[in-house]
Amino acid sequence: MTLERFCRQYGEQLDPPNLSFPPSTSLLSPSIQSTLYNRLFNDTTVWPQPPIPYQTRVLKTLIARIEEAIADPEEDEITDALLEKWTSLLSHPKPDPLKQAQQLTYISYTAPTPFPGASSPFSSSSQEEDKARTILTSESRGLILASGTTGFRTWEAALHLGTYLSTTAAGSALITGNRVIELGAGTGFVSLFCAKYLGPRRIVATDREPALVDCMVDCAARNEVDATKGGMFEAGIWEWGMPVGVSSSVPAMDNQTNNEEAVFDVALGADLIYDTDLIPLLVSTIDALFTTHKIKQFVISATLRNEDTFQAFLNACEQNGLKTDRIPFESPAPEHQTGFFHSTSIPISIYQITK
Ligand SMILES: C[S@@+](CC[C@H](N)C(=O)[O-])C[C@H]1O[C@@H](n2cnc3c(N)ncnc32)[C@H](O)[C@@H]1O
Q: Domain of life, per the record (predicted)?
């Protein structure tokens, strides 16, 4: 798993200091070097490729580690393919750091392998059966705020929710066969994964930012889940507080009409509680999902950066007659993660909200 884990982490563009490089001794093996070249650096076989500066940083560390491990220069060496790639990376002009931070790239996320002992519909004994479930998004990992939205990267709460949905029976049961809507979906990571692997009857990812919706539509096609081409995924603009459907793919629905298209079973949200000013709007929107769109539960994953902010959200739910229950799920510590890699240094909790 060491090599596989490293390749998955590279695909998710983890910060190089957080990458789990294979042990130096195994790096000396020409076949390991060749596998690394073909899985990470070969222009003709690897897509999507991380930005050039990221590739350069990782290959630099890799070469340094191989050099350190070389005991007998007559016997051990760095393969030509890796050295040629290194020369080619160095020949690229240095990009402007600001432009680079704003540039969106495709990122390939791999779902974690279910943990030993976990009750999961995806447990498997053989590696062959454990076919990697990957999903592509378009984002900039380093971007925190751009064009007034925080949605141009996938946040830890989404990766945590993805881990829950992809590795537990209870998580996948939330999606399979259901009509699902996601609020503030950002890159669409959670909904794209659900659409591709968890068999929803329908899944609609929404956000208020049109550029994010465009990215989600593009990624839906690349992940082959686009509803216009027979898949289950739709994306649309939805600004909380407005009726859904004002400008999204979801038709508007008021209390008088019974529009099946606007009825959902489950709603999802990740990292939506970061600003106390947004709480009244968010809670009234969740309430509308129950009353107007008939959802039976709202599942929200929250990074608990500020206890007061989160408590204000729970209080607002209670005042609106919404019941909140914490789902007892913890992501494994980073050193035990096998996919959807994320930090657990700030606690993340998933809540089920019902009415
Ligand atoms: C911190 S990001 C989380 C994105 C994604 N769920 C994730 O966890 O990676 C918050 C998202 O909520 C969206 N958002 C914030 N306020 C909103 C509003 N009033 N209506 C709709 N979307 C909103 C933002 O555009 C952004 O994509």
A: Eukaryota
